Automatic annotation (TrEMBL), chain B:
NCBIfam families: PRK11288.1 (NF008442). Signal peptide: none annotated. It comes from Undibacterium flavidum. Keywords: ATP-binding, Cell inner membrane, Cell membrane, Membrane, Nucleotide-binding, Repeat, Sugar transport, Translocase, Transport. SMART domains: AAA. InterPro entries: AAA+_ATPase (IPR003593), ABC_carbohydrate_import_ATPase (IPR050107), ABC_transporter-like_ATP-bd (IPR003439), ABC_transporter-like_CS (IPR017871), P-loop_NTPase (IPR027417). This is L-arabinose ABC transporter ATP-binding protein AraG.
UniProtKB/TrEMBL annotation, chains C, D:
It is found in: Cell membrane. This is L-arabinose ABC transporter permease AraH. The chain crosses the membrane at residues 37-54, 60-80, 87-104, 110-132, 139-158, 178-199, 230-252, 309-328. It comes from the Bacteria. InterPro entries: ABC_transp_permease (IPR001851). The keyword Transmembrane helix applies. NCBIfam families: PRK11285.1. It is a multi-pass membrane protein. Keywords: Cell membrane, Membrane, Transmembrane, Transmembrane helix. Its main location: membrane.
């Protein structure tokens, strides 16, 4: 038989999260002695090219975090064409009708679930600080052009609403681009318009976006005590904030485990190919809120 | 008298072309040295070497006995050489002052001293007797005025050697006179002057000595211009005898074919414009004469539909009304116009000679109304390359690589090659063209006219207008000021109508 | 000069000009067909050194990966040749895909879906053309504006979410093979054929080059410059819409944020292929090579599993190498 | 020609030029200062109709939001004026930020961090310049290549992760205010001042316009065209690096994927401000207006809470409106 070769396709290869997933997948490859092919697939076109490429390289299967979940049918068809096994990670694939494709094994936490966790953490901290919800503005750093970003932030919104947060206090800061500077500018305008709130809570699709808003609020003299921002990803950006001499408005970040997603999926794919052991159809992982104080424990717990 | 500028065994090669072939000659200080030769003979190439734009492949040039190796135009300028190139080289969006002082703007505390610059330029312009607004942008000037800016730019360098490449091809009489006066002054000051022109009268009027080129080689140097007979010059240049370059042929002139009435621009740029009317008969050559800005080009542009005419105009061709005109309609009706500015309006610089000839000729001659007939197009191109003696290594040569005169011939070929011509308008057709080729072009004009076509020729060269026209319209200040039959036309009569009273 | 001297001068010069005007056949081949030749050599080297590169699955995959870029590069070539510029193609791909998918979802009629998307492409293209040719808006700004607006429309009609496709016959178009070649690749080949012929053998193509080379001269030569420009954009819109539909069929969904940055890839492929941004110069073989270079680089980097971050470096270096090779050879020719 | 006749010819032509150059004062003001005037009117209207728009916090926020774009637009203006093009500015911003942050992290020396980033910017710029001016690589491809490579470098040196900044004095630069204005805005103003003077009152600026307007003419007049082009790119690199440092200080980290698509925004602002992509035409006031329009549009849409997807539409429409207004007024002038 051919030596085992497994592809690992991710939607935003430049992001630390995916770099980490790859890193842990490499670890599995080293342990089991298979070849790992890592390809970034920022859009549907590149995704199709990458699957064709894997076919040409005579890989036997691949793990994928697709740029859009609706690419499910296309992935399924392409994999069948090249007789490749598929395992999806992070985001669960759907078919043309929007139904989850259950036949493709999946491991991850849905973007929406992460968002809900952010919302819940915000609520808990509001309570802990004893803020009156009426005096709190909630800023959603919105980048709805990107499906994941929308799902994550809407998860938070739904959690907040469910926890009794006043709907009228929910305000969108719309991004033009998904970077920190854009978030700064968008947040700045929200702060200008909504000068009535005593406190602010801030959430967005990732740590970088949330940080932009924190900087803007700081420039408007909101202190660490009067704002509460929670990011997603637990990236280096978040750690940098925690490393600052003083606590900033960036309270925490919901950390999810790139290790399980990278290492375990690769291992399961390897078993599937080598000994035809079908992986479980659904493996759900969960996130944990990482703050300045618990950062070391949480990271250790995640094996980072 | 010692030679101030010497060329020794200078050669320059381009792919498929030997532009200069071991050319040697020298020019003296305090004299005007004319260069003449057929289109593509290598004159401009020599000046580009002198100006540091090209490096010679062989040979060298010496100034005051000193061998020079220029690596850039800057080197040549530093060595005291100023060149006025055949293709105007100005910056359209900068002012007259900035163009004239390009590369040498005066500074003060590191900043451009605009007042000083303006003063310098306006004083100099005044001293030279040139009427130009120093603050005007070059885009807003006429070609002639731009040419004058070019000349002033070169003169501003106070160079010891000044070379002119066909400076008068776009100048009017008045400006030509000014230029001649300037050149004579420069000669008095002991400068070395090189002067290229295809107009023999000019060369006789101005030059002390001359060198003749043919096919990249020097044919002869005459130390005393006045002692050389015109016939000798012509035969040295074109390699054959040419007694009368106009060679006027009488023709059968028929009834009126083109009738233009009340033609005036819709958005007139000047208030003194009135509707103009004229007619051309079948087989007739109608000359249009006027000073620069007299409005000849403008009138023809209206007729051809480039600019839109005001309501009330009518254009009848063979009894059929054509107004309002647009270019594509003009062409399909058999009216064509060969523009005066070959660089801006004529050549497709990146395209081949063949493409440049065929671009306007392929309508109605397509396979299935869609595909080009490559073989026929090639044949047509070759035919005109031969007929007009266009100097090019092949029809596939990029037109930008041709000499100025040869480019002009290609553009003429584009329009003369049309089938089914009814009206041909030629705006300054022989600008920059050598005498041999002029003669060829006149013959083609007569041939075309003989088929019953109306030919309109605009020219600022009075002898040419007098030499080939059956009838002459004279324009002044935007209007037709008079009309002369061939028999009654002479220099004085035409000028009387052309000059303001 | 004495006649003798003249004679010997002539001899020398013929010798010299022989030396110069008859270069050796290899150099002249290189000068004329430099890029294709270079690509062939590159291709040969890669075939020998990169495992799995020279295999039919991989080569088909490679062609498939450039099928959208290639199609649009054909029309972009015309657009650039006429001294214009089009940034809106990426958005149009996305919009056409989304619109096609939506119509398909509602009507389940492939014909209707295709017509709707193609019509939309034509309108977008014609809109660009009218803005630029008749209203004389700068092409960069005009197409940047349409790029934004069309992307906005794609988001609006789809509500920002991918539109799934479940129509089997539509989906299978992206998969189907004729004589071993996938349909998108066949469409690509047809595009190159059509636009090659259009550029070199029709009045349309020649006039396009003419208006790019010198719009004023073209106008005087009777070319209907403005109408022609509108047509060029319109065709670009139509071809782009078709590319968008093919993409949608390949990825079985219409994605509103598909093909971001696509315009730059397409323009780069053209420029790499020797199309001048100043207009007036274009060669279909060049564009083909440009497209292939872009695709091959990516393909090989994925085959060799080059690190993401180093891929940026490599792509930059290879782009540079390609143009510098081209520059070197054309300069070599001019001496 | 007799002297008398000569004199009257001169008279006629002066008469003509007088007729041409004296339209009524309002039209001529509009023609000359059309864009600034239009912006003023727009500004007044927005101040009256959009709540919160005309407030010092908002206006400062607006200026802050265009401070990076504005700085780089100043040098991009020079670059475009000389008929060049630079796509690498976005990557350079990111790289300079990352590099500065890294050096700061290691050495904790602000001076060292700034020097390193500025040096890197200068090298990148000079590299572009040499590629384009001396090796004659097409500017689009050359700067596209550097854009990719520099972005790659930014990822490589930072390992793809944001580099945190904890140096107080560096961080406070982005926050600090002088006379109520944040430092970045002051730097922006200084840039406009410097480049305005540079363009209009120095040989450097005039020669830049000359080589853009007609490179051959400039070369023939002895302007050192190639050296000048390298300088222009070098300065662009330096200013961009400074912009990158300021951004890093504002967001207290160096982010390798910052400023993507930045280049297009900057170029658009310039073109909107009347800088010609064909070279030879530039006006600092135009660029300022271009930058302000871009910033204002975004600011107002967020103030008015325009839906994200509709924002795309609006931005497109407003871009079009701006250039069409400009087109209309210049066409009016030329008749
Ligand atoms: N850059 C170039 N590439 C190729 N051939 C060239 C180039 N420049 C000039 N030539 C050729 O060199 C020859 C000499 O050209 P040159 O311009 O010196 O002629 P000329 O005597 O000035 O003619 P004209 O009277 O028409 O201006 C011509 O055959 C021309 O086609
Ligand atoms: N000296 C001038 N001052 C102002 N405008 C001028 C001048 N010369 C020409 N023009 C403009 O050019 C137009 C007429 O020029 P046109 O080119 O038609 O004249 P022409 O007789 O063909 O002269 P030329 O020999 O320059 O081609 C005028 O309507 C005027 O607008
Ligand atoms: O889509 C996200 C992905 O970007 C990554 O951050 C992990 O979680 C997924 O849900
Ligand atoms: Mg010449
Ligand atoms: Mg004229």
């Amino acid at each position: 038989a051919d030596p085992i070769k497994i592809g690992f396709l991710v939607k935003q290869a430049e992001e630390p999260w995916f770099q980490d997933e790859w890193k842990y997948a490499e670890q599995a490859a080293r342990e089991k002695g298979f070849t790992l092919v890592k390809i970034g697939v920022p859009n549907g076109e590149k995704l199709m090219a990458a699957i064709d490429n894997l076919g040409a390289q005579k890989a036997q299967g691949f793990i994928v975090c697709a740029p859009d979940v609706k690419l499910g049918s296309a992935i399924e068809r392409a994999a069948k064409r090249h007789q490749l096994k598929v395992f999806s990670v992070d985001d669960q694939l759907q078919d043309g009708k929007g139904q989850v494709i259950a036949s493709i094994p999946y491991m991850g936490i849905s973007a929406y679930e992460i968002g809900k966790q952010v919302g819940a953490s915000l609520l808990a901290e509001i309570k802990a600080r004893g803020w009156k919800m009426q005096e709190v503005g909630a800023m959603r750093i919105a980048y709805d052009q990107l499906p994941t970003a929308r799902e994550r932030t809407m998860g938070a919104v739904d959690a907040l609403k469910a926890g009794g947060f006043p709907v009228t206090n929910l305000i969108d800061a719309n991004l033009v681009k998904s970077d920190t500077e854009s978030a700064y500018n968008a947040a700045n305008i929200v702060l200008t318009k909504q000068s009535g709130f005593k406190h602010w809570i801030i959430f967005g699709m990732n740590d970088e976006a949330v940080l932009g808003a924190v900087r803007a609020a700081e420039a408007r003299k909101f202190t660490q005590e009067s704002m509460l921002a929670i990011g997603i990803g637990g990236s280096k950006s978040a750690l940098n904030e925690f490393a600052k001499p003083k606590q900033t408005g960036f309270f925490g970040s919901v950390l999810i485990s790139p290790k399980r997603h990278g290492y375990e999926t690769s291992m399961m794919m390897y078993e599937w190919i080598s000994s035809n052991r079908q992986p479980p159809a659904l493996t759900l992982t969960s996130g944990t809120l990482m703050t300045r104080s618990n950062q070391h424990d949480v990271r250790k717990q995640f094996g980072l | 008298m010692s030679a101030y500028l010497e060329f020794e065994q200078v050669s320059k090669f381009f792919p498929g072309v030997t532009a200069l072939n071991q050319v040697s000659f020298s020019a003296q200080a305090g004299r005007v040295h004319g260069l003449l030769g057929e289109n593509g003979a290598g004159k401009s190439t020599l000046l580009k070497i002198l100006g540091g734009q090209y490096k010679p492949d062989h040979g060298c040039l010496r100034i005051a006995g000193q061998a020079q190796a220029f690596h850039s135009a800057g080197d040549a300028i530093a060595a005291g050489v100023a060149v006025i190139h055949q293709e105007l080289q100005y910056v359209p969006e900068l002012t007259v002052t900035e163009n004239i002082l390009l590369g040498r703007l005066p500074r003060r505390f590191g900043f451009v001293d605009k007042t000083a610059a303006r003063k310098l330029v306006s004083e100099r312009l005044q001293a030279l007797g040139v009427e130009l607004d120093p603050d005007q942008l070059l885009v807003n000037l006429s070609i002639a005025q731009r040419q004058m800016v070019e000349i002033c730019k070169a003169l501003m360098q106070d160079a010891q050697i000044i070379a002119f490449d066909e400076p008068t091809s776009s100048l009017s009489h008045r400006e030509t006179e000014i230029l001649f006066r300037i050149i004579r002054d420069l000669r008095e000051q002991g400068r070395t002057i090189i002067y290229i022109s295809h107009r023999l009268e000019e060369l006789y009027a101005l030059c002390d000595a001359c060198t003749i080129f043919r096919d990249g080689k020097k044919v002869a140097t005459h130390a005393q211009m006045a002692a050389v007979a015109q016939d000798t010059l012509i035969s040295d240049m074109v390699g054959r005898e040419l007694s009368d370059i106009y060679d006027y042929q009488t023709r059968q002139v028929g009834a009126t074919r083109l009738q233009v009435t009340n033609l005036v621009a819709k958005s007139a740029a000047r208030s003194d414009q009135n509707p103009q009317s004229f007619f051309v008969r079948s087989g007739e050559i109608l000359g249009f004469f006027g000073l620069v800005g007299a409005g000849r080009t403008e009138l023809m542009r209206l007729l051809y539909g480039i600019d839109s005419a005001a309501a009330g105009a009518s254009i009848y061709l063979d009894g059929k009304e054509l107004a309002p005109m647009i270019v594509s309609k003009a062409i399909t009706s058999g009216i064509v116009l060969c523009p005066e500015d070959r660089k801006e309006q004529g050549i497709l610089a990146q395209a081949s000679v063949a493409e440049n000839i065929n671009i306007a000729n392929r309508r109605g001659n397509l396979i299935a109304g869609l595909f080009l007939r490559h073989a026929e197009e090639a044949q047509l191109a070759d035919q005109f390359i031969q007929k007009l003696n266009i100097k090019t290594p092949s029809r596939e040569q990029t037109i930008a690589n041709l000499s100025g005169g040869n480019q002009q011939k290609v553009i003429l070929a584009r329009w003369l090659a049309q089938e089914n011509l009814k009206v041909v308008i030629l705006d300054e057709p022989t600008r920059g063209i050598d005498v041999g080729a002029k003669n060829e072009i006149y013959r083609i004009i007569y041939e075309v006219a003989k088929t019953g076509c109306c030919v309109i020729v605009i020219s600022s060269e009075l002898p040419e207008i007098l030499g080939i026209s059956d009838r002459i319209m004279v324009m002044r200040d935007g209007q037709i000021s008079g009309e002369l039959r061939r028999e009654e036309a002479n220099e004085a009569a035409v000028l009387k109508l052309a000059l303001p009273d | 000069m004495s006649p003798q001297n003249q004679a010997s001068t002539v001899q020398t010069s013929t010798k010299i000009s022989k030396l110069i005007s008859k270069p050796n056949p290899f150099i002249s081949l290189l000068a004329k067909q430099g890029m294709p030749l270079a690509y062939l050599i590159l291709f040969a080297v890669l075939s020998l050194t990169v495992e799995n590169f020279f295999s039919s699955t991989n080569l088909i995959g490679l062609m498939l990966s450039v099928s959208q870029i290639g199609m649009v590069a054909c029309t972009m070539m015309m657009c650039l040749a006429s001294r214009d510029f089009d940034l809106s193609v990426g958005s149009t791909i996305a919009f056409a895909g989304v619109l096609g998918a939506l119509v398909l979802e509602r009507s389940d009629s492939v014909a209707l879906a295709i017509s709707a998307a193609v019509l939309a492409g034509a309108l977008i293209g014609a809109g660009n053309g009218v803005l630029i040719a008749y209203l004389r808006v700068n092409a960069l700004i005009a197409t940047l504006a349409t790029m934004l607006m069309v992307r906005g429309l794609a988001f609006i009609v789809s509500n920002g979410q991918a539109v799934g496709i479940s129509n089997e016959s539509f989906m299978s178009f992206g998969d189907a093979r004729v004589a071993g070649l996938p349909m998108p690749v066949i469409v690509l080949a047809i595009c190159f054929l059509i636009f090659g012929v259009l550029l070199n053998h029709t009045v349309f193509g020649r006039n396009t080059l003419a208006i790019g080379g010198n719009p004023e001269a073209a106008e005087l030569a009777g070319v209907k410059v403005r109408a022609l420009r509108v047509w060029i954009f319109l065709i670009q819109g139509v071809v782009t819409a078709i590319a968008g539909l093919i993409l949608a069929s390949r990825i079985t969904s219409g994605q509103p944020n598909a093909a971001q940055g696509f315009e730059l890839d397409v323009i780069s492929a053209c420029v790499l292929g020797g199309v001048s941004l100043q207009g007036g110069k274009a060669k279909i073989s060049g564009v083909l090579i440009g497209v292939l270079i872009m695709g091959t680089v990516e393909n090989v980097m994925n085959l060799k599993d080059v690190d993401t971050f180093y891929q940026y470096l490599m792509r930059g270096l290879i782009l540079l190498a390609a143009v510098m090779f081209d520059q070197f050879r054309t300069r070599g020719r001019h001496g």
